[in-house]
Amino acid sequence: MYYRSSFSLDLHRRPNVGKDGFTLLELMVVMLLVTLVIGISTIFFANTLTSSKFNTTVRDLSTTIRHARSLAQIHGERKTVTIDLDSKTYWIKGKKVREIPSDIQIKIIDPLYGEIFEGRYQVVSNAMGGIQGGTIVLWNDKKTVSIQPDPIVGSVVVK
Hints:
Blueprint: H1 24-75, E1 79-84, E2 89-92, E3 98-99, E4 105-110, E5 114-116, E6 120-125, E7 131-132, E8 135-139, E9 144-149, E10 156-158
Antiparallel strand pairs: 1-2, 1-6, 2-3, 4-5, 4-8, 6-7, 8-9, 9-10
């Protein structure tokens, strides 16, 4: 009796050509598409980073002025936010000094002195809630924002 093994090699069967795996052309097209998507997303996120840095600076500066107003009301004494236009820094006395990024420009529009581009400027918060100071204007290549403290009510409006 002749037994045929299930492990024997069948010479008449063709191997599965082209059914398992990908061709080189398919792999190259997929790699091109992945590279294209990564490149576009990098450009998008790079533009978003610049915008978020600007928005963060505006938010931090307006929050610092609001914080000084709160401290003035809590302690019953004047609190001052000092803005150094030359070194692009701002702070409340006794608190952390914060920096304005170098790509962001700043000026103050004071009701008495007009536009101020250099020196130190003080925004003073009174114990009664009012704020003395001019409009702070921040801008970069794409955007301009003004921070306007209200002298009577003490609110800070960002436009």
